[in-house]
Amino acid sequence: MAIKVVTTAAALRAESARLLTEKQGASQGLVPTMGALHEGHAMLARTAVEQNDVVVASIFVNPLQFGEAADLDRYPRTLEADMELLDAEGVDLVFVPPVDEVYPGGEPLVRVTAGRLAEKWEGASRPGHFDGALTVVAKLLHYGFPGAGLSGRGAFVTGTVAGQPAYRAYFGQKDAQQLTLVRRMVADLNFPVEIVAVPTVRSEGGLALSSRNRFLSGEEREAALVLSRALRLLEERANAHEPLDLESAQALVESQPLVGLDYFDVVDPDTLEPLAENCKETPFRGEGLAIIAAKVGPVRLIDNVPLSS
Questions:
Q1: Of the candidates 86, 77, 79, 75, which has an alpha carbon nearest to the alpha carbon of residue 42?
Q2: Quick check: is 38 catalytic?
Q3: Are 19 and 113 in contact (CB under 8 A)?
Q4: Does the model's pTM come out above 0.85?
Q5: What is the pLDDT of residues 164-173, one digit of tens each?
Q6: Alpha carbon distance 233, 254 (integer Å)
Q7: Which listed residue (41, 129, 142, 241) is catalytic?
């Protein structure tokens, strides 16, 4: 493999600086992941490689994002396959830190708090999840800064490359609420990074790709297709400037007995607040985001589709 693996922030900093110098690079991209990679992650890596001179991917299963130890233990680890996928897409460097590298003193005493944007939707169903996600994303964005990272004493150090390269980080649109929160964190806390959203990748039937899909039976996978069908129904109505009639789309989902609906709504993509255009009689206008979450068998799935008129 041409790809190189590092496990410490110091090694990541050194290799990042070396690659940027070697390639005379003007930009670096970061693709944060939790592993168990699929074609959706490949699209993230592919986009990053197209847009940057040096690309770093991270693979870290973040314990702060899991409410129960059993869920953390159950999360799939497929490092060898993940490395093959990233190598095939042209990623230069993979950061695979152990837990004690990211959290050297155990669970951090200070964390990023997601705030009001995390109180609804996924945040309501998974309390604390986004605090854990933003805390690790903040650390990974620091680690992935071009030619920089954390010194052995835990102090942030700047890059050594002359003329600071452009810095971009890549996130999938499928995790829409997380994407909104990451963008807000970067803006509110002045992170020097551009957040790039990559469209959701779907199976042939329309199911949004997810590491959790592997836990679906064939019957459950077929039933789960109703989520994307309901979203497409809203998208078609929005494109036609028709009333969204969310209730009829919801009824479509609820007609599938293997699907337990958690939420289904249309929200403002920046504030995540429900939009007034959801009513039956009002034609859709403007920009919105249709979001859905449901349990299919033992698996919780989320999906979304941007709406515009």
A1: 86
A2: no
A3: no
A4: yes
A5: 789 999 999 9
A6: 15
A7: 41
